[in-house]
Each structure stands twice: as structure tokens, then as C-alpha cells.
Amino acid sequence: MRSELSTRDRRAIRLGLVVLLPAFVLGLGVRPYASAWMRARDRLESERALLGRERALVDAAPSFGRAEATERSALERRAGRLLPGDSTLAGGALVRYVAD
Q: 53 vs 46, 59, 64, 66, CA distance in Å?
């Protein structure tokens, strides 16, 4: 029992394919590809920004030694203000310092 489709039914099926096929191609092919492309582009952008920050650190590296020396001398000048010992001893020294 084979039923023949009428002209109207065949036209409806063709119209459905014309409408649905591009929708399936777009939904199952183009969108995932475009989404992956956008994620890759965003990641590349963030990696480039990271590379720029790393290059800036490498360029600034020679000044780190001078900055350390400056900070170390400032710390040594203020050594008298620092409280000696661990936190318990420092707490006692702070109480004596405030009491005086």
C-alpha cells in the first residue's frame, strides 16, 4: 500500500524543508562555530593583555634592585619604631611604650 502525495502535500514538504533546513544549519552549525570563535578571540585578547603586563614587569626589572635598596634603608631608619619579638612580646612592648 503505497500512498502517493498530492501536489499540495509535496509543495508543503518542500516549503518546510526550505524553511527548516537553514534553521537547522544555523542552529547546529553556525552558532556553535561562532560561539567558539568568540571565546577564542576573547581568550587571545586576555592573553595579549597578560603578555603586555609581563613585558612591563620585565622592562621594570632593573629598577627592582634600586627600589629594594631604597626600601631597605627606609626600614633600617625606622627600626627603632618597630617593636621587637613575636606578637606576644611586641604586645607587651607596645603597652610599655604607650604607658610611657
A: 11, 10, 16, 21
